């Protein structure tokens, strides 16, 4: 690996930073910075000069000691002294330098005066308004640091699908409205409907003279333009999400859409397959022949691309190289579930607990979605913050639903409850009242940090109760906010299968719990999944599409999903 002058300069600058943070003699710090500058300014490669036997200590500002260190870097690619300094430096002190307002001097002050070692420490100190009083800081700097910390956090995290969707929809409209633009499509993980996206990848075709890139980088939500070119531009939106836009030729549109939809792993596997057939596949098309004499045999549409490599069309949600190529080859791809396959929703709250709409309003909204049933699942008493139901209130609601049901035709309200699974695995309401319900959704809302064994045992014990039907949001994770609690999902699914229980795929965009792999596991283990919204409002029922996306990523078909059944069939399945 060749060592460039810039590599040496970077290492010396890092040494200077760390020395300065630790409060070393300013002359020593300056010596490293000067050396870094000298090396950077050299017209020739310093590594090459050493090769030719040059004496580097003849360079200005480079003494014997520094010359020795340069040799070390050129020979080993690293510097022991820097490694040592990094070892001594507590935690992530060097990472603090990534905050725009902080140089090594300020980082040193923060460390010595407030004991700040990490970005978290920094955030806390800023929040507690401790930074403004330090020498050389002030309230304004403190505020800027807080803003910068927020930006950093936002920029690093992956963005939830539904959040990305909100940013993407107006952007696609905007791009589609620019003169000369013909086709606009989103590719990447977004098109694969991943629960979170790293960035957005947009493709478009347009007339040669379209001002699309100028207009794109001037989009109102753009906060930073990282690159702008004729065929590719990259920007950051104000919330931190990155967007790549590529202009592709019409003849390559399908090939580019296919390539940039990914996943990378899927692409690599298909490319290998193409090579075995004597074909080349890339973002411009599928080609036959040698490099000098190649013929494009496909490229304008994705269908064409698949056909050229002798595969049936594979839905974007499946393109993860998790067996979809083999399945496609055998004609064994699943017929993926679509929203219209669902006949109802099995998890919804009303105003009676922490929902926002009345029972009637929720039913009206469900009917508008074309459903023929809705389960009303209030919280149970353990969830006191949500005004969870005790036995008496549940019985009142049961009576209310019975009355309302008499007036309804062609629609079934399922009497239900989202009953808590208590720490010992018992359910939060007595069996006598659970027996009056059509079905139950049973959820864990407390004691998230039990061991895997204990948590798994707790849930399986709950399933032993004959009134247990559906395990609600089975891992409790909140995307980007709360990790899943530790459970042995295979064991849980095994137990569910044995007992005739089901697992929920909670469609709320912050949950999407089960995740895609767990959905696939459920399918393989023969455990049916209920795709439910956990709606707390009429609008919440529409989140069902996120659940459908996730289910498709988990290979689920109509038959794998509980709430594709007609009322009578569903009730039969629910009988244990
Ligand atoms: P993300 O953004 O992290 O959520 O995931 P993706 O899948 O959107 O990845 P991204 O944005 O880096 O690239 C978009 C697509 O471009 C990716 O899914 C497949 C394709 N791609 C990118 N780099 C490569 C590569 O090195 N080889 C191949 N075969 N495809 C690539
Ligand atoms: Ca992407
Ligand atoms: Ca990208
Ligand atoms: Zn819940």
From TrEMBL:
UniProt xrefs under CDD domains: NT_POLXc, PHP_PolX
Gene3D superfamilies linked: 5' to 3' exonuclease, C-terminal subdomain, Beta Polymerase, domain 2, DNA polymerase beta, N-terminal domain-like, DNA polymerase, thumb domain, Metal-dependent hydrolases
Keywords: DNA damage, DNA repair, DNA-directed DNA polymerase, Exonuclease, Hydrolase, Nuclease, Nucleotidyltransferase, Transferase
Residue intervals of the DNA-directed DNA polymerase X domain: 3-320
Source superkingdom: Bacteria
Single GO MF descriptor: exonuclease activity
SMART domains attached to this UniProt entry: POLIIIAc, POLXc
Domain Polymerase/histidinol phosphatase N-terminal: 344-423
EC number: 2.7.7.7
Catalytic activity: DNA(n) + a 2'-deoxyribonucleoside 5'-triphosphate = DNA(n+1) + diphosphate
Entries under NCBIfam families matching the protein: PRK08609.1
Protein name as it appears in the record: DNA-directed DNA polymerase
Originating species: Geoalkalibacter halelectricus
């Amino acid at each position: 690996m060749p060592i460039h002058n810039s590599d040496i300069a970077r290492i010396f600058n890092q040494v200077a930073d760390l020395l300065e943070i630790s409060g070393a003699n300013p002359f020593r710090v300056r010596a490293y910075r000067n050396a870094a500058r000298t090396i950077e300014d050299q017209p020739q490669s310093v590594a090459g000069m050493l090769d030719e036997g040059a004496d580097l200590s003849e360079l200005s500002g480079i003494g014997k000691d520094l010359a020795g260190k340069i040799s070390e870097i050129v020979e080993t690619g690293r510097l022991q002294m820097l490694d040592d300094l990094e070892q001594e430096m507590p935690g992530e002190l060097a990472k603090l330098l990534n905050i725009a307002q902080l140089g090594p001097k300020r980082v040193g002050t923060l460390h010595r005066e407030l004991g700040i070692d990490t970005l978290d420490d920094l955030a806390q100190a800023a929040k507690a308004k401790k930074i403004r009083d330090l020498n050389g800081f002030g309230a304004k700097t403190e505020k800027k640091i807080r803003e910068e910390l927020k930006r950093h956090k936002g920029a690093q995290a992956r963005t939830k699908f539904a959040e990305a969707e909100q940013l993407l929809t107006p952007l696609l409209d905007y791009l589609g409205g620019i003169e000369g633009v013909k086709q606009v499509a989103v590719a990447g993980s977004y098109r694969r409907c991943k629960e979170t996206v790293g960035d957005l990848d947009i493709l478009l075709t347009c007339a040669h003279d379209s001002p699309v890139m100028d207009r794109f980088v001037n989009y109102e939500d753009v906060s930073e333009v990282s690159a702008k070119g004729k065929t590719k531009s990259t920007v950051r939106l104000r919330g931190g999400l990155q967007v790549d836009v590529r202009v592709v030729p019409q003849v390559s549109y399908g090939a580019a859409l296919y390539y940039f939809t990914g996943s990378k792993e899927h692409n690599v596997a298909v490319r290998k397959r193409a090579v075995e057939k004597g074909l080349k596949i890339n973002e411009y098309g599928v080609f036959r022949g040698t490099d000098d004499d190649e013929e494009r045999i496909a490229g304008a549409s994705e269908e064409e691309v698949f056909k050229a490599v002798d595969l049936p069309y594979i839905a974007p949600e499946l393109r993860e190289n998790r067996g979809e190529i083999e399945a496609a080859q055998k004609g064994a791809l699943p017929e993926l579930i679509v929203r219209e396959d669902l006949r109802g929703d099995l998890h919804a709250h009303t105003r009676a607990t922490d929902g926002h709409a009345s029972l009637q309003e929720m039913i009206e909204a469900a009917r508008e979605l074309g459903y023929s049933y809705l389960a009303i699942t209030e919280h149970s008493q353990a969830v006191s913050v949500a005004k969870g139901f005790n036995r008496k209130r549940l019985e009142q609601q049961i009576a209310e639903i019975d009355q309302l049901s008499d007036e309804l035709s062609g629609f079934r309200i399922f009497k239900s409850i989202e009953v808590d699974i208590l720490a010992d695995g018992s359910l939060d309401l007595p069996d006598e009242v659970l027996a009056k319900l059509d079905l139950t959704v049973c959820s864990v809302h407390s004691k998230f940090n039990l061991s895997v064994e204990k948590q798994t045992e707790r849930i399986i014990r709950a399933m032993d109760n004959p009134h247990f039907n559906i395990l609600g949001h089975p891992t409790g994770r909140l995307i980007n906010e709360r990790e899943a609690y530790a459970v042995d999902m295979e064991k849980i699914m095994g137990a569910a299968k044995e007992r005739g229980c089901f697992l929920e795929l909670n469609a709320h965009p912050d949950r999407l719990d089960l995740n895609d792999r767990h959905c696939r596991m459920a399918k393989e283990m023969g455990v049916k999944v209920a795709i439910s919204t956990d709606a707390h409002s009429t609008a919440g029922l529409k989140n069902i599409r996120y659940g459908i996306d996730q289910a498709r990523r988990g290979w689920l078909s109509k038959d794998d999903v509980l709430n594709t059944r007609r009322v009578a069939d569903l009730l039969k399945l629910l009988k244990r």
